[in-house]
Amino acid sequence: MPNSLHSVFHAIASAQNEQELKIAVMDTVGEHFGVQRWGIYLLDDHTAKDNIQDIPDVCIESNPIGRYVVERHAPTHEQLILSPTSWKQLCPRQDHEHVMTGPIICDGRLIGTLNLARFSGNPAFDANDLADLSALCLHLSAKLATLRTKSVTFNSQLASKLTPRELEIAELVAQGLTNAEIGGKLWISQNSVKQALKRMFRKLEVSARAEMVAKLQDVLS
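RESULT FIELD:
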């Protein structure tokens, strides 16, 4: 298949970190989609707008296309939600004649967008482009979730000192989550997390989170 995304999917799966993931996508999507501008914008990545290929104008909530992606967590392009006249009133730029944006999702929330644009004189995006972007965003979202969630498996001897719930909390502490974030993931209150950590400190004979993580990491299997 001459225009297959399988090579991109393989590159995404092989990425060892977020920088490699960005490179894998940025080196290939431009040619695949026949676009002149493209970029990945991660909401917590403040360097993204320094990329000359980035398109911040189409990934903000005040823009109808960006707002559609934010509200629905689904990809779209300008012809799906706007008339050509409406779009040109919003974006007169010749290098944004046609735009398409897709969501990057992690833990049920939007963490970024993949943005594509074609210059004036190029064809509009079609249903095949949208299907390819949907597939690409699924692979990106899954890989980012894997990279951002480092599973921790503790030595069974140490694990026996903690309850299953305490082990869950310890794993999330090792990932760098705050008490509020841990509570949100486990559906318990922030105070419950705080009290559990106090019990865990006593059991493990430590006095701080960093000390607890260091001790646990010393006996990682």
